[in-house]
Structure formats: structure tokens, C-alpha cells
Fold each of these.
Amino acid sequence: MQRRASRPVQVGSVVIGGGAPVSIQSMTTTATADVSATLGQVRALASAGCDIVRVAVPTRADTAALREIVAGSPVPIVADVHFHFRRALEAVEAGVAKIRLNPGTLADRGQVREVIAACRAAGVPIRVGVNEGSVHRSEAGRRRDGGPAAGIMAEALEAYLEPFHEEGFEDLVLSAKSRDAVTCVAVNRILAGRFDYPLHLGLTHSGTARTGLVRSMVAVGALLAEGIGDTVRISLAGDPMAEVTAAKELLWSLRLRQREGVEVIACPTCGRTRADVNALAEAVGAELADVREHLTVAVMGCVVNGPGEAEGVDAAACCGKSRATIYRRGRRVRTVPLAQIVPALVEEARRLLAEG
């Protein structure tokens, strides 16, 4: 797909925009002042595939911990600043890779100019991130129809950018988030047509792992499919590792990133199925979780779609009443009892890996 052209912004070792791969972000849930806990979570997120990690810095104790966190992090660290502009100055001094400012929580233009000056001197970019919940809106703007609310958010962000443009500071990433998927899509379409800054996509608080995942995929997926978006965060309540897993799957599905690891396909099952397809697929995925090369493995519940599906994957099992046929790159190689499906598929997958 053709992606929207945007200017590149260097965030530590990661480039956002300018045609660079869409990067994945998440945010720690630890108290940033707890260096050990925060670094532990940052490293876990990085190992899972997160490219940039944001941390909250509400207190001086948090920014005091940043220097050690930045030094120990394998990925760029972003300081999330609200209300107190001095937290931004302290974070820049500590060596963070980017500052995030919210127009709804840091509105004083004199203070914003101080942050701009500090970031310019240190070569640190700024994300200006407006959230619908922190923007003053008229009653009309409270309507969630993708119209007025989106327009008000875009206007608020554009007005906030005035001192940046007056100071000639263009090392910027923009974001506009709502908990409503339709509003999120609408406002980012406006921004994409109005600016050439890279866009950070996400919802403010999309919800739990189940409902939030659907909302995020609708909004972020729709925008990415239109070529809009340079970096993403799939905001979910709970373990931030789930955000990274979801973001990777979204980017893989849209072919915006090269898929890694084993992709397990399973049929939705019906009355013909005599095996627990979901459990088998989960078990195969767990057994091959260490694999980094891309392989596709399928577990199919019956002979209707099974043989055809097996032709396009690396290894497949097509279940019958008591036995399953094992395929290797479309070729039928053996039959096994249903209880042996998992070891048989794992064996075929590892054999393919060994052969290169």
C-alpha cells in the first residue's frame, strides 16, 4: 500500500516517519522512580518487539531516575509530561529520546517555549499529543459522530503548534486520540491532510484486552490501511506486553512489517470437527514459540477446507474422526492419531527449519 509522505523524526535509534517502518510503542505501568522495576519492564517490552517505550514523570523523583533508566534501556525512552513543564526540562537533561506534551495539561506558552528551547539545544524531538478528554469542548463538540469532536481536536492541536512554528521548531510528531474509534479515524484524516509531520496512532483508553483490542484494531487498522500513521500504540488496560503483541499482529496483517515466528492458522470449526482445534493450535504455537523464522502451520478440523489450506502453508494437520493427515508444503506425508498431531506438526516444522 502507498503510505502518506511525512518528514522523518529521529527518536534515539528509531526513525519515525520519512518512509521508515511503522514503529511500535508502549508505556510502562511501573512507578518510574523505581528504576529496577521500570528497567525490567522496559527490557521485557523491548524483547517482545517494542521499539520505543514511554514512561510517566509526574514527580521530581521520576525524572531523577531517568538518567539510569535511559542508560540501561535497549530502546529509546520517551518522557510523558503533564502539568509541570520543569519535568520536561529535567527529562531532557537526563537524556530522554523524546518529550510528549499534551495541549490540555500544559497550556502556558511561555513554559512551552522553554521546553522548545531545551529540546532544540539537546536535539530532542517533541510529540504534541492531544486527547479528546483533555480538550475543552462545546456541547456540540461532545457529540461522538466523527464530526465536531474531530474538528475541535484538530483545531486545538493546530493552535498549540503556533509557538513551535514561531520558534522554527519542526522536530515534531503529532497525535490526536479519542476513546471513540470513529472520532479517532476522522481527526487523524484531518491531520494527515493538514500537516506533513509523522503521526502517532492510538486510542486514549480503548478498554480491556478483549473490547479494547477490537476498538484499537478498527481505528488504527483503518488508518494504516489508508497509508496514514508512522508509529502506533495499542492502548490496553493490563499488561503492556499485550499491546506489543497486538501491534505486531496488526502490522503483520497489513504487510507493513515482515512477519516473524510461527503463524498458526486454525479453522473456526463446525459440526464436522472431531478434534479440539483451538487447543491443538495453541499447543503447537507454544511448542514453537522459540522460533524466529517465519513459518505457517495450520490445524484444520475436517476435510472440507483442510487439504486446500494445506497447499499454501509450511505444515498442516487435517483432522478426521480418529486420525489426522499431516502435510508438508502441500504434500501429504503421513497420518497420525489425533493425540499425535502436536508432536507431528512440531517435528515437521523443525525439520523444515533445519533444512533451511
Note: Residues 137-146 have pLDDT under 50 and may be disordered.
Amino acid sequence: AVVWAAVWNFAAFFLAVYVFGGFKIGNTIAKIVSEDFINLEVIFSGLIAAIIWNLFTWWFGIPSSSSHTLIGGFLGAALMHALVGNYIEIKADYTDISFFETLKMSFSKLTTQDVVKFNKVIPIFLFIFLAPFIGMFVSVIITLIIINVCKKSNPHKAETAFKQLQLVSSALFSLGHGLNDAQKVMGIIGAAIIYYHVDIIADPTYTTLAVSDRFDFFAEHYLWVPLVSFIAIGLGTMSGGWKIVKTMGSKITKVNALEGVSAETAGAVTLFITDHLGIPVSTTHTITGSIIGVGLTKRVSAVRWGVTVSLLWAWVLTIPISALVAGITYLIVTLFN
């Protein structure tokens, strides 16, 4: 199952290029922070924070969101970069004031700076909450329709048919997963290349393009970036997917073949819609909401709410912890730079 998912994760590259017409989510991620506050230390610190939190949650089998981890890390490192810059500037101008007074003035200046692009970030934060509910709503509808259509079918034959259909639904969800998550890494790499590669910035074609089209121009000229990103998401699924699969497939609620088809289809629909809109969402949250939805069609008690609450805590903590770790990492990196 994990190998099957990994193959379709990579196949999503072709879906992005030939069906969705570009890398909209990568474009969004690359622009959540103002370019004035991006440097290689910021990007490095954000990625280190994302790696640390993702490894921590993977080790304990917690289905956290790599999307939120990357976003939190990127934002936290950029904010710390701006704060450190403010501190150095204020300390140079006011040599006689205390550390805490300088820090207070640095934070005050930070509130006036356009570090975070809220027009990009606000939709992302809204869909942190919307994506699981959309997945849950769609899965409830799909499950009820299937149950109604198949209520007179032979149970054994129906189970066999849905096991075969699950190959299709899992492939669709894996396409959505690859389409969404690989582009998030692309966005971070793209930010580094776009802002530091003199040739691409100086290219007359690039400078005359609308800002919304520049990321696709970058992707065309650096095709290795999307290729490596989609390969990496597939390899990551193959190498470490079993712990998360166990939690998703059995600990939230028991899922049979029919319910698996419903949950995966609902998750895929949600991911395809958000990719079309260019809004990065958590594939983990989306499929969790879908699984809860199929559990609710049986009875409320069919959902193991203790596990679900633990997952919710992990989701709530992901962005602030990633931002904090990224900020600390940035401080350490700048000390040795």
C-alpha cells in the first residue's frame, strides 16, 4: 500500500504540469514572506525546524502536518531575522539603553514591518480548520450514497468490489497528496533560487511577468526542483509511511473497504479543489476529517475521540512550535555566521 501511494505521489508531477497548468501551491508558499526578509539563513532555519518537528511526530506516530510545519518554520525564521536586524539597528543608534529596552523597541518596530504577507497567509490559516470539515462533510455524503445504493447487494461481493475500488481511491488521494505536499518544498527552494540567482532576476522576461506568473517561469527554468520535490515526497512515503498509516487506518476508527473508498475519495476531492485555488492545506488533516466522517455515519461512539483530541493538540501546536524552533535555529546560525 505504501509503495502504491509513493508511485502516485510522484505521478502527481505530471498532473500539476499537464492538468492544473502549473504549481500554484508552490507559488503561494514562496510568497508568504516578503522578499526583503528572506535570506539563506532564514530558509535553512525554517527547513531545520520542519525536519525536527516532522521527525518527532513521525517517531511517535502522530499524523501532524508537514504543511503547517514548513509554513510555521518559514514564518518564524523570517520574523526572527527581522527582529535581530531591528535589534542591531536600534542598538547602534541608542548605545546607552538596556538590553530589554532595545528588545522592546525591536518588537515594536516589528509590528510596523511587512514581514508576513497576510493576503497569502490568512487563506492558509482558514483552511487549517476548513479542510478537515470539508473532508468530513464530503465523506459523510459519499458514504451514505454508497450505503443506500448497495444496501441490497451481496455483502461478500460488495466487499470484494470495494477492495478493488480502493486501489483507485487510494491512487486519487495519493495524487492529491503529492500534488499538495511536494509543492510546499518547491516553494521554499523556489524562494531561495528566485531571490539569490542573479541571472533569473535579471532576465527581461522574468521582470516583465506578473508576480503571480513568476514562479511557473522559475519552475520551467529549474525543472530539477519540481522533479526532486515530487521524487522526495514519494521516497518519504515509502520509507516512513507505516507508522502514520497505522494511526490513520485503525486508531481513529476502524475502516473497512467501503469506508476507505469514501474517505480517500473525499480527501482527494478536497485536495484537488484546494490545489486549483492555490491554497496549501494539510493532507493529514484532510484525510483525518474524512475518516472521522465515515465513522460518524455508523455512530458517534465509533470515532475514538481520545485519539482525535490528541491529534488536534498536535495540529494546534505545530505552527507555533515550528516557528519557535526556527527562530532559535536562526539565532544559532547567525552566531556562527
Note: The CA atoms of residues 72 and 201 lie 27 Å apart.
Amino acid sequence: MIKLKGTENKKVLKRRRLLYILVTSLIFEGLIRKLTPSFLGLPIFFFKDILCIIALFSIANDDLKGNALKINKYWKIVFVAFIPLVVNTGFLDPVLAPFALKQYLLYVVVAILVPLSFPSGQEEAFNRFVSFFTLMLIPTALIAMLQNALPSSNWLNLSTDGSNLEAFSAEGYLRVSSTFSFNAQYAFFLNVVACFLGVRLFLIPTYKSRFWNFVKKYSIPFMVISLIIGSFITGSRAAVYGSALCLFIGIIFLGIKSPKVVLGKGVVAIVFLVISLTALQALKPEFFAAFNKRSENSSEYSSNDELAGRVKGNFFNWTNWIFDVDLKETILGKGLAVMSNGSDKFSSYAYSIRSGQHIWTETDMATTVWEGGIYLLILWYGFRIGVIIFCYRIWKSLKEKKFGFAVSFLMGFLIVTGIGGTLSIQPPLSIWWWMCVGAIITIKNFDKRKIQAPFTKQIPNANNMPQIYNV
């Protein structure tokens, strides 16, 4: 590990602390809101945004390099391209315009914050961060199991505003949200942490403490079991199928890098998953009840047909109405962030759109077109697909095997969420996505150092202190 200079080290530690706080606040936001007075609900809800704004000021004067600099350049170009949409939103409701920018573009900062928190030579610190993040599977699953055992009237099973959630149950079986504000946010977390669990298999931390070495040695089976329980106990197909699809794509990327690893570790992991899933279903069927109810065949269509319909609708249902609105709205939409969570609480315009027209664009592409028209559809998806291609090139360029294997799993979440995820209306999902991008950039920086290491030598300076120079 490289020791940084005093001031540089302080900066890194502050950013790393900020990242840990951001991740922890996202995971426990719902639980904290339930435990605190209702008047604190809004400040807690916006706490993640405050942290991201602090991160923005933290990196503002930094001399960015490499892939972090590239992301920053793309970010600035997209910001300029957003100006017509922000101006259009400002005319509709001035209050909504800054909120809209936050929803779409603020969280990109996390992609830069991650590599700045773990600069080249700080690989061990990054491995510990990955370990910390994946370990969060265990407490979140324990809370979810507790919720499952409690009646729906218990405070832990109420919404963050104290209302009963029985209306969202699956034929009487509660769909739990664990420590998160909403069931969907727990599903988002499970999708991303499933891929980071793949990273954890190859980037293994080391500890001086016997306790943490014990945790490192024996925690993975418990984390896998927690992932299975968490995914099914939510009753959310997005959690189960989303995590499975992210891992499946990750395994494909891993197979391209090394078929031997897939045939070795991959087979062992799949066997363990199957045995765990079978055993859990036999021992704790109540954990699977909500999911099974939601997956049962309906009157005319099977759950698979319904799922296929939802996937198709996610990408094409906006075509049913886009050309029925006037030309301006077809091009620039009805205003950014009108469909975002919470916008109707402070924006009278967003409230009138959502209540007066009884519209809720659940899917990301429909939301994008509704809010920003064809212009935003091209811009927003172009940006996202561009980031996916950017990260794919990084994955392809990695030389060190373990880094290539780790990024393979991150590519799974990046692709699935980047193409179909509701990044424009769900800040937690957006933060997870950009954190994934930042992790890929960070791993690339470690890979570069590994490649350069054999071609460095020490040259004494004027003070006879050794310095490292590339030769």
C-alpha cells in the first residue's frame, strides 16, 4: 500500500468517510425515518442529496485524471445538453427545475467520488469497503425476517409516514422493505449487492484483527443465504429476477475472461445456491409465500407471460401516447421530474399533472419520454449507453485476472440497470448505479498500477529520499 502525503491523505479519508456515510444512510434510511419523529422525515429523505452536494464541492477543484476525468467531461457535456429541458421545466414551474437537475445529473458525482476515495495504491481499503457493503446483506435480511414474523400493524411494517401497507401485500402476505423506505428500494439494493458479492469473491480484504479475519473466512455463505432470503421475502420479482439476471450476465462476462473459473468456482456457487434455496423453501416456506403468490398464474396469462408483457411495456408503452400530445410536448415533454418521488409535495405543477391526469409512468423509458420528450429519450439513454460502452472498454482492457473477474460482475448490474432501471425517478438506484461505475474506474486504476510496477525504479532526490518514477 502506498502512503499518501499528509494533506492528500486527509482529503482521501474525508471522501472515504463521506462515501461510507452515504452508503449507510441509503441502507438504513427507512428504518431511521420510522424511528424518528415525522417532522424529520423530509430532512432524512434529502440527506443523501446533501451528501452528494458535499461530494460535488469536494471534487470541484481537484485535478482529475484518467477515467475519472473522462466521466467528468461527459457529465459537463450532458449538463449543457440538458439546458433546453431545464429552461422548459423552469417556465412550467421554477421550483421544479433545480430538483430536476438533481434527479438526473447530481448523482454522477458518486462515479468520481469512489476512485478519489480509493486512489491508486489503496487497494486494501477498497477491498474492505466492498466487504463492508456486502456484509450489509446480513442485517437487512435479519430485519426483513423480523418484519415477516410481525403483524402488518406493527410499527416496523408500517410505511415511513405511519400508514398501513396491507394494500400492497400479495393476497395477505406482507411484502417487506427491511431497513429501506420502500419495498422497491430493498430490491434495488439486492440487485447491486448481489454483483458486489461477486466482486468480494475475488477482491479479498486482509485484517489484523482476529475477529474480522474470522468474519472474512466464514461470512460468504451467510451473505449468500441472506441474499436468497432477502430477494424472495420481498415478494418482488424485480429483486429475484433482477439479481438473477445481473449475476447471469456477470457470469457470462466472467466466462469470456476465464471459462475455467466459471467451471470451477461457478459450479460450486451454483450447487450451493440450489441446495440453500431448496433447504430454505422446505424449512421456511413463509419467506417465499409473498413471491409465490405474486408468481401464480392469473386468469388468462401465466406469470411468465405477464413478466414478458412488463418487459415489453417498459420499452414500448410510451409509443401509445407520445404522438397524441402537441408537438412541443412530443419534443420536450411535460417537464423534468414531474414523476419523481416527492415532487408533487412541493411542486403544484407536478401535483396537477399527477393528480389531474391520473398518470403514473412506472417504467423508466415512459417516464423519460413523458418528462422530456424525444429529446430527453435520445440524450438520457445515449448518455447511459455511452457509460456502459465506456465501462465495457475498461473491462476489456484489464490485465490482472482478479480485477477482470471482479468487474465482470459489476458489468451485470451496470447493463441491466442502465438499460431498464428507473434511474430518473429513483435516487437510491441512481446512486448505486454510479457507485458501480466508480468501482469499475477504481479497479482500473489498481490494474494500471500493477502493470506499471515492474517498470518503475527508485531514484534518489536532492534530500536523499526515495521517489517513484515511471521509466
Note: The beta strands are 456-460, 466-470.
Amino acid sequence: MIDAQSVSFVKIEAITTALESNFTISGWALVPALVVMGLALKKFSPLPSLFAGVVVGGAFAMLMQGQSLQAVFDYANNGYAIQTNIVEIDTLLNRGGVQSMMWTISLVLIALAFGGALETTGCLRSIINAIKSKAKTFASTQVAAVGTAFSTNLVAGDPYLSVALPGRMYSPVYRGMGYSTLNLSRGIEEGGTLMSPLIPWNAGGAFVISALGLGISGGNLENLLYIPLAFACWTAPLIGIFYAFVGWFSPKATEKEREEWKSSGAEIAKFNDDGTPVVN
């Protein structure tokens, strides 16, 4: 009879041996991650912090692992590739690179281009004016932002688009009302990212169904019973809307934010003293 504990130790030993034979294992390998975390704690901007981690990681790959500069650039572009014949290691390490993210990046660029086209043709202005005329309070604006993100999820079938488009549409209204755009960020995350897994034809829902080994072909709708169990996904928007109506955790824009809006030339919707919108 095979001892399960012995099998586990054999597996661990095989993984450890494979890692040691392919890499130099040292505590110094943690330095790139510590650099990123240190810069994040110092409140440096995300992009420079991540770029610093990439540079330090590339340097350590050359110094500790004996990789060439050409190999480092190739890994950064195409991702790392290794064949150890151990599923756990190959699954963990064969990934990464800019090319693996091109689908996401291209979708964001398309969304931004679409937003630019809406702005240039005046469609975005019409949409903003329509939003201002209907959503006259912060609470109603927050509900509209969450609803728009969710509707985009339903129609477009992609969570990235459900974040990019409402963010472009509603940010001038939030600025005009004097509220921090952090409220908008939270709203479109609740209606976009969190609601995505609850929509079967959405990219998020397709991933969940695939990861859980479910299927809805042939009318097998019982596999959708995971939806009411995804408490965080559907309760977060309700809690966020409740906060908006009672005024909890709904910060006004700080003076620093207002100065940043002015210096960057960000669009700010205009409202009359009585709260009615100024339609341009």
C-alpha cells in the first residue's frame, strides 16, 4: 500500500531538485519584489515603481541566474519558457511577457480610441449633458455609474470596456459636483469588475465557468447556481449605492485633487447654484 505522505514528500523533493538544478536559489532573489513594495509604501507612482522592479529583476537575472541581456529582453516581451517535465513548475513559470497582455492592452487602447471618437464628434458631450440632466444628485449619479458599468458588461461582454467607457463619461460630472473621482472608481469597479463573473457570456463569467468546470450548454442552467453564492460580487454594488444615499464613505474632492484637475486641463461639468446642470 502506498503511503500518501511519502508520495507528497517525493513530489516536494522532485520540485525542489528541479528548481535548484535550473536556478540559483537565494534570498537575494527577493530584492526586486522588496524594491516594488518599498516604493509602493513610499507612495511612489505605480508605473515608475513597477518599472524599477522590472529593471532590478532583469539585473538580478543576469547577475544571479547567468542570463544574457538579450534573453532578459526576450523574456520581458514573450515571457519565460522552461521545460522541466514537472507540471507544477512548468505551469507556474511558463508565463508573463508583454505579448501575453496584448489582448488586454489592445482592448484598453480600443476603448480609449472609441472614447476619443465620441469626444471629437460631440457624442460624449451629448452623453454628459444627458447624464447631468437626469442625475442631479450625487446618489443618483453613483447609481447611474454603477448601472452603466453593468450595462456595458451585459452588452460588450468585457469587464475592461465596462470600466474604461463609464470612467471617461462620468468623470467630468463628478468633478463638477465637487466629489472625488475615487467615488466613480469604486462605482465602476462595483458595476464592472465585480459584476463581470455573474454574466455567463462575459469574459469574467466565462473564466469562472471554465475554472469551476461548469457548463451551460444544452440548457444546463443548474451550473449557474454559483451566482447567488458569489456574495462579494452582487452585495458590493448594493452596499456602495447605500453608502451614496446616506453619504457614508463618499469623499468630496480635496484641494490637491482640484489643483490637479486644473493643471491637467481635465474637463469639469458646470452646474448652476441651484444644482441644475449648465447644458453646453
Note: The first helix runs from residue 4 to 22.
